[in-house]
Amino acid sequence: MSELLQVTNITAGYGDGPAILDGARLTVEPGKVHCIIGPNGAGKSTLLKAICGMLTIRKGDVVFKGERLNGLRPDQILRKGICFVPQERALFPKMTVRENLRMGGYVLDDTKLRDRRIDEILERFPVLRERADQHAGTMSGGQQQTLAMARTLIVKPDIVMLDEPSLGLAPKVVQEMFDIMKMMSQEGVTVLLVEQNALMGLKNSDWGVVLDLGRTLFEGPAEAVLADPRIQELYLGGRKVA
Amino acid sequence: MTDILQILILGLALGGVIALMGSGLSLVFGVMRIVNLAHPSLIICGAYVSYWAFKLWGLDPIATLPIAALIMAAIGVLLYRLMFESQAKSARYSEMTVLLTFALAMIVEGFLGAAFTNTQRVTSPEYATDAFFIGSLFIPKGQLYAGCVSLAIIGALTLFLNYSRLGYAIRATTQNREAAELLGVNVNLISMIAFAIGIGLAGAAGSLVSFVFSFFPAKQWEWIAMLMSVVVLGGMGSVLGTVVAALLLSVIAAFVGAWVGATWSTMTFFLALFVILLIRPQGLFGEKPELA
User: Fold this and answer.
1) What domain range includes position B53?
2) Contact B168 A94 (CB under 8 A)
3) Is A188 a domain residue?
4) Whether the Cβ atoms of residue A19 and residue A12 lie closer than 8 Å to each other
């Protein structure tokens, strides 16, 4: 039993609407980068939202460190150690970089500890330090995504979940984002990300999870998933690609 | 030259009060996307609190301002729980609040009319009819005091929003509700608190309004249009924008009143609203609306 987070056959959807997820499962092991891939509408983002408590889980279990998370609110799940960065609009655009980081530590009661960690993060990310007093909304896409990821580190989470961190970024910048994720995982923060670009995502991950029509098709080591013929079928209608 | 200075002073003093009247409206829209058409009717409620406290017990309206603010803030909590909390997840929330608050405005007006009749009222502490004279300039004490108290309250509000933990949470919720929730902010509680503060500001504005303008329950219709122009010019949801817009429009209205004619003075606000929506719909400090 080395898994940190275990999702077993969950069913979930928005409000009273139809189930978007039906039979999604997932195993997250500590210190690795996990990538969820799948075609549009597979329920990738929905899965992250269900884990972090934004959606009600109708069936199945989410178990984190041996504890069931079903029914907890997002702030409670955050305090347990799972941090979620939603797609694109994760920041407060009219707050400065420093204020955004301060909001990242909102659940920390010890303000001195929070301020010390903010300083540590600014030290580690020069791009943020140089812009500490600039409004987040005025930064470039890559800088904003860096801030969104760095901000999660203030609460020292066990798992950081990222919804399409590469969205709208130039290829060179995308690689920088993956490098940051790698660095995070090397420091013991487990990363779980959703990626539209399956090839790119898997190449930069340790573990791959393939989702289609709301259920998990299969999961496994990233290279194995990448080489699996079912992937090509799923994405390319069975045609062989070089 | 003295004329110009005189008009400027009168415009600024009045602008301060209008800024306070609009800031609660702006805050409530910014945090909760509630277009509170009932805001002026709640200002009038606050005005009645100070009016009766003065009439019955001779209490100064500036002294009863905190009481009016607290009473209205408490009413704000009730209104929020009763009217808005259950609607918070609705997809058509903002549109719905327009109808809800429109109904509320009429209910409040009807209630106030039944209780206090539609007689014009004005609180009359001594300073309301007195003035300072500096050379040939005169500064009406009532408007000066009201303007200064307003700006002091807005200053305190700004400090609170920018430096307190609760203020951070309110601003974060305004800018990105989902992200705030994910970082551990109890957005429902924050919304309720912000709404209560907004309605409390209406109460505070009411105390000052009670000796600056004459009022009666139906006066709200004139004010809602005026406040909407101020809030839209400032940029919906920006408190700073509201202050700048209120001062700007009041000064312009004062000049129009003095040079063109008093009847045209109120028109300034509506004309401004019209022009702003054509030229810069996001207002002075608002964000450009997203193209969706």
Assistant:
1) 17-218
2) no
3) no
4) yes
